[in-house]
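Worked Example 4.2. Consider the chain below.
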Amino acid sequence: MEIARFEVVGRFAPSPTGPLHFGSLVAAVGSYCLARYHKGRWLLRMEDLDAPRVVPGAADDILRTLESFGLEWDGPVVWQSRRGDAYAQALECLRTKGLVFDCGCSRKEVLASAPHQGEEGPVYPGTCRKGLAPGRVPRALRLKVPDQGMHCFVDGVFGRCEQHLADAVGDFVLRRADGVYAYQLAVVVDDAAAGVTQVVRGADLLGSTPRQIYLQQCLGYCVPRYYHLPLVLSADGEKISKRHGAVSVGQGTDPSLMLCRVLRFLGQDLPPHCEKKTPQEILEWATTHFDIRKTPSVGQVVA
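Applying the procedure from the previous section yields the following structure tokens:
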């Protein structure tokens, strides 16, 4: 009997808070090339949960920009803002397992009582873990993390990584006080629903991965393979963001030149005169020859 071939499913998940910048394009091209290299599917998801940060028209601009670079996705675009029911079901599953609890603490109170700084700020001290104090009302919903043990995984670029969740982040938020589902929950639920097996993204999210793997385990989901790409740094040494400028065809960007620039940033050895090829021809070469082993882990400055 023939054994079914393992299908690779990759994805790109931008936030529509502005035009696509160079750092996001690196993640898009890297995820696309690695998925296609393995003859896999490449999905697209708009992470538009945080409505106040969403810029009108930004999602359409991102889609047009991706198309101009020859990046074609499989299936319809998924919008997180339309998936509230799925996130609610996941929370209910966690609640039935006794893994979540209501928290009545404000951000100011967490800052004042946190035992130390963690991965992304003050570590939650567990104030409401055993129940709300009299007179307190529930605000956020948090996931209980184990007090002991390291959470380890092997990243496809950075190698072995580990984190002690209790010390690094503490019990983390799954639904915010304003009712918005947290990124950590949404990304895990969405990846599982889409059958994603390969997550390729920027190294700024490396510290989120242990939380997401733990949450996947709590929900009984399969854990994807993770690859964290080097950060694109601005001239001041900071992670590049939308304020540093966007990648936009409307601004006169040459897609072929930009694709070659991105692939070189990812450590790929391009053939001569690659810039003279069409974006489709460049991607055809890249998806045949892409070698993630050549991708550096150290961020690079992009002027």
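The longest strand covers residues 41-46. The CA atoms of residues 231 and 299 lie 4 Å apart. Compare this with Example 4.1 before moving on.
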